[in-house]
Amino acid sequence: MRPVPHRPLPAAVVAVAGVLLSACGGGAPASPGSHDRATAPGSTAATPSKVPAAKRPPSGKPTTTTTTDPGLLPQTTVLPSTTSPQFHAEMNALWDGIVTGSVPTAMRSFFPRSAYLQVKAISNPSADYANRLVAHFALDVAAAHALLGPQAAGAKLLRVTTVPGYATWIVPGYCYNRIGYWHLPGSRMVYEEGGQVRSIGIMSLISWRGVWYVVHLGGVSRTSDTGLVDSPSIGPGTPGPPGGC
After folding, report:
1. pLDDT bucket at 50, cuts 50 / 70 / 90
2. Is 10 within the bounds of a domain?
3. Antiparallel, parallel or unpaired: β 228-234 and 15-17
4. Per DSSP, what are the bridge partners of residue 211?
5. Which letter, b or e, does each residue of 126-155 get, where b requires 16 or more Cβ atoms within 10 Å of its Cβ?
6. Which terminus of the chain, N or C, has less C-beta within 10 A?
7. Residue 193 domain-assigned (yes or no)
8. Does residue 68 belong to any structural domain of this protein?
């Protein structure tokens, strides 16, 4: 089968995100300096994490969970893993949401609202979560889905590449946060579509209780309500850059 070319998209549908690394909260506070964050020990070489295909329950036997909402529990300083079953499950959910254009599916990878209410030192974190974070995430999922084109259903996630050495602990008081967390920028979802290996970025992952969650997919800042795709590339692309909060 010949590779299926990606059709160029109108600017109104998808924009390519640059490295706009402003605050995770509203406004534009100063970015944390080296004395305001701790860098995770580890290599700055890219680390691919092969994501196993999601295991689905047999027909007629839906799975149920009774776990406590992690966002209702206190934060920890545990550095998350990118090789854990939970991380793989989140990345599969994010990819399934992109392939199908389903925001509810992709939201399984997203930072919990209850945790966000604890983290943000702003007047109305609930409104910011819904009207900015989730709204922008939905736009970015739609933009990534549009990038895949008419053959989206056949696109296969191969791996997620991260740079462990880029992880930094953001201390309380920066980026409008009252609680610290780990931040990992510039991960990449490497996929195959129509015989061609391609990749897109995940702008920001942040931690809650030792688990990575997506907080920004295509971009942090934008000048309009337009979906962004972070650095779409032919081939695996390059993770990063480091920085941000």
Report:
1. low
2. no
3. parallel
4. 208
5. eebbeeebbebbbbbbbbbbbbbeeebeeb
6. N
7. yes
8. no
Q: Rounded to the nearest 5 degrees, what angle is found at the Cα of 234, between the Cα atoms of 229 and 238?
A: 70
Residue ranges making up the domain that contains 102: 15-26+35-52+74-234
ω into residue 241 within 30 of 0, thus cis?
yes
Question: CA separation (Å) from 156 to 54, 55, 159, 206?
Answer: 12, 15, 9, 25
Tokens of 236: 């695996």
Whether this model's pTM surpasses 0.90: no
Query: For residue 69, is pLDDT > 50?
Result: yes
Q: What pLDDT does 44 receive? A: 63
Tell me which of 81 and 14 has the higher pLDDT: 81
C-alpha Rg value of the chain to the nearest Å: 17
Number of domains the chain is built from: 1
Smallest Cα–Cα separation from 202: which of 221, 183, 215, 191?
215
CA distances from 130 to 110, 117, 197 (A): 12, 11, 34
pLDDT at 52: 62
Grade residue 2 by pLDDT with cuts at 50, 70 and 90.
very low
> Could you report the per-residue pLDDT of 173-210, keeping only the tens digit for each?
999 999 999 999 999 999 999 999 999 999 999 999 99
Give me the count of residues in the chain.
245
